[in-house]
Amino acid sequence: MSTFTIFLILIILVAFLLIVVVMVQNPKGGGLSSSFGGGGTQQLGGVKKTTDFLDKSTWALATLLLALILISNFAIPGSGGNTESKIISGDDTNTSAPVAPMSTPAQAEDTATPADSSK
Length: 119
Hints:
Blueprint: H1 3-24, H2 47-72, H3 86-89, H4 105-110, H5 114-117
Helix pairs in contact: 1-2
């Protein structure tokens, strides 16, 4: 398995986890945190702790996803090749046979046979 494939799998896994964590949250204060007590009393591991955990995990997963994407750029296959133009470097490795230029219609009229020019 190549390094790029490993990074790709990790990126997909982290993106899926980030989607799950964001979907569990409710912007109005509900979501998963409201189902664990929700009343005026603060429990051990209750509403406040759940909200803090979801908030911190969202930031951590987003940062991890960004870091994985940036680091995976170095593992892309074929990215280490020579990007310099052959024309600029003067490297002429064209071994194909030269092609004769095509004649234009004006050149074709100039090469008419003498029998046609007597008309």
